[in-house]
Amino acid sequence: MVVPTPTAIEDSEDRMIIRLDPGGPIDLEGLGASFAALARFYARHHGPAKDEHDTPRLFISKLENGSVVAEIVPYVVMLGQAVPFMQQAMVISQFTERVARVIRAFSGIETPAPSEIPSQDDARDIREFVRPLTGRRGAGLKIAYARYERRDGDKHTLLEYRFDENELNRAALTIDAELARPALPAPKAEEEPAVRKVSEAMLFFQQASRGAGKSSGRTADKAIIPAVSDKPLPVYFVKDADLKEQMVQGQPNPLKNTTYIVDADVQIVEGEAKGYRITHVHQVIDGDD
């Protein structure tokens, strides 16, 4: 049997039904803000599609008196006409479940998995959605996904969630506390070491190993370059240049009365010199000269 494709809102079989029981008069502006927040929540998770013209939009197909009962259907606007979205059954069921899951999480009914913790945007919109019901005695909310039989109009509820006054107030208080919490500062990017070059600067060894000069890793060589710092800092050498050999060769005691004129790269971390890398040796001046 071929089922005719619905072409008008009234022909839609699958709908999300929202029943707000405020326990008293409800402000029209507050009701509008409530449904606007629900629309934002929907758009965040169920749109846009590849083509903005194919993006399903929410329409209220029916609004009843007394308690506010709204039947909502996602439709695509084509040629100025609202056409039922082909995958509306799946979208409505997912949307209904997602809204209920966020309220259940903030009311303490269930603990969400780490991957399902609501975002602050979701929390803010759900808070606005339930605002007309919070702080009201006897208030209640029902969210359901229902399907109408095309032949006789009978309604079959496929998913249903109910929230009473206490659960709604608890969710609102939890969301308010969550949104009032100051945002954590963004992690500070690790500062890249800067390099400052010095030319023909005096260097005095304070400590020197018997081995060849190192270009990286741990080094036992330390020296002072007065033009940079009066602290002994680790000394490295350009790889395979034999610069350390040039400096200490023939010196009976390189730590005593010997001045070296060098070019060097100075490693700067947070504005402070942390080490030297010798790039050229201009002169070795013995203390007796």
Outline:
The protein is α+β, with helices and mostly antiparallel strands. The protein is built from five helices and eleven strands, in the order βαβββααββαβββαββ.
Protein model, in words:
The protein is built from five helices and eleven strands; from the N terminus they run E-H-E-E-E-H-H-E-E-H-E-E-E-H-E-E. The strands form two sheets. Strands 1, 2, 3, 4, 5 and 6 form a six-stranded antiparallel beta sheet that branches. Strands 7-8-9-11-10 form a five-stranded mixed barrel. By secondary structure, it is of the alpha+beta class. It has two domains: about 10-180; about 195-285.
Helix content: 10-25%
**Structural classification:** alpha+beta
Q: Please, how many helices? A: 5
Order of helices and strands: EHEEEHHEEHEEEHEE
Q: Report the average pLDDT across residues.
A: 81
Number of strands: 11
Q: For the CA atoms, what is the radius of gyration?
A: 37 Å
Shape descriptor reads rod-shaped
